[in-house]
Design goal:
Shape of chain A: elongated
Transmembrane segments (chain B): 12-36, 144-169, 190-211, 336-358
Protein name (chain B): PepSY domain-containing protein
Helix content of chain B: 40-55%
Oligomer: heterodimer
Keywords (chain B): Membrane, Transmembrane, Transmembrane helix
Helix content of chain A: over 70%
Largest interface: A-B, 38 and 47 residues
Organism (chain B): Henriciella algicola
Largest sheet of chain A: none
Structural class of chain B: alpha+beta
Structural class of chain A: mainly alpha
Pfam family, one (chain B): PepSY_TM
Order of helices and strands of chain B: HHHEEEEHHHHHHHEEEEHHH
Number of strands of chain B: 8
Distance between the termini of chain B: 17 Å
Shape of chain B: elongated
Number of strands of chain A: 0
Strand content of chain A: under 5%
Chain lengths: 65, 378
């Protein structure tokens, strides 16, 4: 019997599609968390929103459906 | 991704999550009020105090120190800190400079008169209890290190969750929540969706929490390595009977780093200094450097400046990890984001346990699917 192991084949394209939104959420949130530490003033508001970008995406998805 | 690989990551995700769940739940619940500690303190202690002589010239730090020690006979000074918005100096004293926190006495003094400033400590005991529970569970260093280990497990569970997200979502669109099928599937989908969108925050708060648990070893390493020469040259030196002027020491420290501001003074023998030096801690003026402190060491007997010792990278990492962990650096909106993400983490922990408890016969089904190469088709 051949030794072929069962595998879940995920093409690079499919992987990209799976992680596209999470990767954007990760990058924007991380940038917001760090930028809020580096910059003070009114920009804090903007960076706080960026920090919670993942929450905004999740809320948009949940309430859209 | 092979069947065995997925099984291995599933094992990592399951056990790292389960082992740390209870402690993470405690950390999330105690962390929630700590995010708003400034607001809670402010609400419980409305600031009605005013300086006795607002127009008067400020007393010197030496005068304040003498006043503080007169009211605490037999005690020695440990720390002196400064209010930012009020002309108030805080003096911490104790039976010895290395006294434990429980033996320390904290008092605030009006810089314009030397009068005692009434303590704003309504609710302080509750907040201190919560902070202590959050920091070390009242177990000291072993408790801190244990919670640090829990933090590492938590970070591993987040990473393994990200790895497993791909096979779980193989045939699903982003954000799919299968509400019409089983209850377990619905909560699995919510768990995956909310978990993957909060990865950045979960990792930042988890890893900075781990760094914070290493506070004591980090400070000890800094003292034993970076300050080793100063400590060695003063080994066996008895505390000097004559004390050099504290005001002169602070002025000399600021001259060493004119672009920095005074933060606090650690007295000889305290946890943040050597046996023979005042350590005058300064911090930067920019948003980044204000979290990074540097001590100027000044011989407490002679007033001689030993020099500014920049903190090493690991101590700077500790300084930066504190605000990044508590989320108190970017205004109220950031705190609210922190609070919502804290609640989201509680949701992830609870749904994680639910998914594990409700696995039942599904495990056999998944194994069958694994055998068929249909991995994790829920």
């Amino acid at each position: 019997m051949s030794a072929s192991k069962p595998r879940v084949k995920l093409s690079a394209k499919r992987l990209g599609a799976i992680f596209a939104v999470p990767a954007i959420a990760f990058a924007v949130s991380l940038a917001g968390l760090i930028a809020a530490l580096l910059v003070e003033g009114r920009a804090d508001l903007f960076f706080a929103i960026a920090s919670g970008f993942g929450l905004i995406i999740a809320a948009a998805v949940i309430f859209r459906k | 991704m092979g069947k065995q690989t997925i099984k291995a990551w599933s094992w990592v995700h399951k056990w790292t999550s389960l082992l740390c769940t209870l402690f993470l739940l405690m950390l999330c619940l105690t962390g929630l009020p700590l995010i708003f500690h400034d607001e809670i303190d402010g609400a419980l202690n409305p600031d009605s105090w005013t300086p006795a002589n607002p127009a008067a010239e400020h007393l010197t730090l030496d005068e304040i120190l003498d006043t503080a020690l007169e009211s605490r006979p037999g005690e020695v000074p440990i720390f002196m800190s400064f209010d930012i918005e009020r002309p108030v100096v805080n003096v911490t004293s104790g039976p010895s400079a290395d006294a434990p926190g429980s033996a320390m006495h904290f008092a605030s003094f009006d810089l314009t008169s030397g009068n005692l400033v009434p303590p704003a400590d309504n609710g302080e005991s509750v907040m201190e209890f919560i902070l202590q529970l959050h920091t070390d569970m009242f177990l000291g260093l072993p408790g801190m290190l244990f919670l640090g280990f829990m933090g590492i497990l938590f970070a591993l569970s987040v990473v393994s969750g990200v790895v497993l997200y791909a096979p779980f979502m193989r045939k699903l669109e982003f954000g799919t929540v299968r509400r019409q099928q089983s209850k377990r599937l619905k909560w699995l989908d919510y768990h995956n969706l909310l978990g993957i969108t909060a990865v950045a925050w979960l990792l930042v708060v988890g890893l900075t929490g781990v760094i914070n648990t290493l506070e004591e070893p980090i400070i000890e390493t800094w003292k034993s390595q970076e300050l080793a020469d100063l400590v060695a040259s003063n080994e066996g030196v008895a505390a000097s009977a004559s004390r050099a002027s504290l005001d002169a020491a602070v002025s000399a420290a600021i001259e060493e780093a004119p672009d920095m501001e005074l933060q606090f003074v650690a007295f000889p023998g305290s946890g943040f200094s050597t046996k023979a030096h005042y350590a005058v801690f300064l911090h930067g003026r920019t948003p980044v450097s204000e979290h990074v402190i540097a001590p100027v060491l000044i011989h407490a007997g002679t007033g001689e400046v030993a020099g500014l010792r920049e903190m090493p990278w690991y101590a700077k990492a500790l300084s930066l990890s504190r605000p990044l962990h508590f989320g108190d650096y970017g205004g109220l909106l950031l705190k609210l984001v922190w609070a919502v993400l804290d609640l989201l983490t509680i949701f992830l922990l609870v749904t994680g346990v639910y998914l594990w408890l409700a696995r039942g016969n599904r495990r056999m089904r998944v194994e069958r699917q694994l055998d068929n190469g249909e991995v994790l088709e829920a």
